[in-house]
């Protein structure tokens, strides 16, 4: 795919413009240059895409061809992603501002997700049940849910898309995907690969446009059987309400305010390094960012001082510059939101240890940059501790006992992920067992892979992506019972 060109959406096997012919410019957050122009669709385009997916599911053969064949096609998509890794990584960095190193890592993860589900395609064959009824056989089979609406956010555009596309395709569903309207480039490219791999027309459809029209249509249209959404909690609530119109199956991957508990007996260097990695990758715009450091009081000062020391040396810049460690935020609007959180933190009484403003470097003035920021003297009543700022901000709280650490970690409406750093593995396991989160890392932070499920407790979501559970989201389970010796009951 060339850059600086006008892209299209993919409906029923055809590349087309929006019905309205409206378009949107896609902006590079590093310098605000226009990198592409895409259709700005509306609910009518979404309806057309849903109709195509419905037709393909009800009358096409995608759901009924051998699962092995679907797996082969999905494996081709994985191969093409590996082939086009560099091009995809460049598009992702242009679109999101993240460093090329991060984008290349994302592309490897994404290819891995398609390979993983391609491998599982023909291993979901159901089971026979030991029937309690004489002269009968009972079996359980897994069938595709039907037409899936898939809505993704801007921070990991293609990664989040891959977690939805690969399991939906191998299980025989048809789908309509809507990426974030501000970061659609890699998703468009992957739909080119989906076409190249031979996915039949109508099976996978792509609509580009805003959540208020295209997204709302996907979540409320009665021809959609499942809605899988990754994004913010407020949007998730709206989608859950709209989805109730026809009791759609629902998968929600929402935000997080993730605690990272550091005990005095942790490996100090590892804990410092992982605390930084846990937050500042992609400028903190990660659902699972370890934005709440919960630190044993006896190492608090030493740890904060080590963090500040490292943070002051961060190199902010263009994601295409090999030296760059942290890129810009996604948009002017988001930068303002992050700034407001910092102002609120100061007003609420937190102490700014470092950062707390835009950088002064003249080379960064056209981008949406914000300095990595650390707040100390934080407590759970503060909104910067409770709300997802989704930027490069760490808050630090202190604790004096294991019980207190766990209590602080769980004091949140969110329950996406968390971490524990200690050399005492029994203590670590005790904490992990009590932490109410979908993922707990021990002496690690922010690692995910296709084999392990991902999702949130509490208001961080409903359901799981990745792993075998990621397949279950996209299947209905049916019990088929057969009477081998049918006779009248003569009851009535
Ligand atoms: N749990 C996870 O795995 C995970 C992963 C990545 C991001 N996130 C979360 O995503 C959020 C950041 O992404 P965002 O700002 O793009 O989120 P967002 O909720 O604003 O938007 C996400 C998607 O929903 C669409 N949308 C907006 N309004 C809609 C509506 N009324 N109906 C249907 N669709 C609508 C948007 O166009 C976009 O495609 C953060 O909260 C982050 O934690 C979660
Ligand atoms: C799920 N993850 C960590 C890849 C991206 C969250 O924003």
Automatic annotation (TrEMBL):
NAD is among the record's keywords: yes
GO biological process, alphabetically ordered: glycine betaine biosynthetic process from choline
EC code(s) of this entry: 1.2.1.8
Pathway: Amine and polyamine biosynthesis; betaine biosynthesis via choline pathway; betaine from betaine aldehyde: step 1/1
GO molecular function: betaine-aldehyde dehydrogenase (NAD+) activity; metal ion binding
Residue runs in coiled coils: none
CDD domains membership: ALDH_BADH-GbsA
Entry keywords, A to Z: NAD, Oxidoreductase
InterPro entries: Ald_DH/histidinol_DH (IPR016161), Ald_DH_C (IPR016163), Ald_DH_CS_CYS (IPR016160), Ald_DH_CS_GLU (IPR029510), Ald_DH_N (IPR016162), Aldehyde_DH_dom (IPR015590), BADH (IPR011264)
Ranges where the Aldehyde dehydrogenase domain occurs: 15-480
Active site annotation, chain numbering: 253
Short name of any one Pfam family annotated for the protein: Aldedh
Classification via PANTHER family: BETAINE ALDEHYDE DEHYDROGENASE, BETAINE ALDEHYDE DEHYDROGENASE-RELATED
Family per similarity comment: Belongs to the aldehyde dehydrogenase family.
Protein known as: Betaine-aldehyde dehydrogenase
